[in-house]
UniProtKB/TrEMBL annotation:
It comes from Smittium megazygosporum. GO terms for cellular component: mitochondrion. This is Enoyl-CoA hydratase. Belongs to the enoyl-CoA hydratase/isomerase family. GO terms for molecular function: catalytic activity. GO terms for biological process: fatty acid beta-oxidation.
Length: 227
């Protein structure tokens, strides 16, 4: 398949997707999200592949939904075209996906990272949900996956202020990412973890992924135990 906005490769059993729309800091236009989904599905059905790594450039993982595309749409277009369909489809990928994030991961870019199963951050990674500054809500996980990752108060703060200043170390302290690495090491670290995962039993890996994603937030479990 010919892709224009991503670069797809493999390293042994690891499928690699590099977002490659540098002029727009990997803003998630329809073509880009379509290509990412297509590549993910191809890796998911490829028996040689055990895990997948998604990365961007040093400057940007992804600076969000494509604002220019977003502004052209009316609410009726958004509903008719099911513009966030790609996001729900990514949740159906059975193989583990690791995000190696450098630079900006804002809005839909932060949400794309959170759709992945593990996030590693480069030292210069910065996360945020600036949707509120555009008068919209973080519609692809910012109000759901982010709460699971960092808890309610921090998720509220991030989404309500629209601040784009959650740097790698703070993201690590908050639990959003699993580790922080030098800019030039984060990708290779992600690939090495993906290789390790690829050696494990594929059915067990798929079941673990599915079970962990079914887990409600710890707060929810606490509530049930409490009553
Ligand atoms: C379209 C974008 C873009 C975006 C950057 N670009 N972000 N194009 N959509 N989200 C384009 C710019 O227009 C510019 O193109 C080029 O990328 C470089 O960007 P600069 O702004 O010149 O770079 P810099 O000064 O380094 O600033 C980087 C930045 C800033 C801080 C990341 O670009 C920025 O604030 N971007 C918007 C971030 C944002 O609000 N994202 C959330 C979107 S809402 P030209 O051609 O002009 O040079 C969202 C909703 C999610 O994500 C809903 C679910 C999917």
């Amino acid at each position: 398949t010919k892709y224009e906005m991503i670069i797809v490769s493999t390293d042994g059993p690891v499928g690699i997707i590099r977002l490659n729309r540098p002029d727009a800091l990997n803003a998630l236009c329809r073509q880009l999200t379509t290509e990412v989904l297509q590549a993910l599905k191809a890796f998911d059905t490829d028996r040689q592949i055990g895990a997948i790594v998604i990365t961007g450039s040093d400057r940007a993982f992804a600076a969000g939904a494509d604002i220019k595309e977003m502004y052209q749409k009316k609410l009726s277009d958004i509903l008719n075209e099911d513009v966030l369909n790609w996001a729900s489809e990514i949740s159906s990928i059975r193989k583990p996906i690791i995000a190696a994030v450098n630079g900006y991961a804002f809005g839909g870019g932060c949400e794309l990272a959170m759709m992945c199963d593990i996030i590693y951050a480069g030292e210069k990674a910065v996360f945020g949900q600036p949707e509120i500054n555009l008068g919209v809500i973080p519609g692809a996980g910012g109000t759901q996956r982010l709460v699971k990752a960092v808890g309610k108060s921090k998720a509220m703060e991030i989404c309500l202020t629209g601040n784009v200043n959650l740097r790698a170390q703070e993201a690590y302290a908050a639990g959003l990412v699993s580790g922080v690495y030098p800019v030039d090491k984060v990708f290779s670290h992600a690939v090495s973890v993906a290789k390790k995962i690829s050696q494990q039993s594929q059915p067990a890996i798929a079941m673990i992924k599915s079970a962990i994603n079914e887990c409600k937030s710890p707060l929810h479990i606490l509530t049930i135990e409490h009553y």
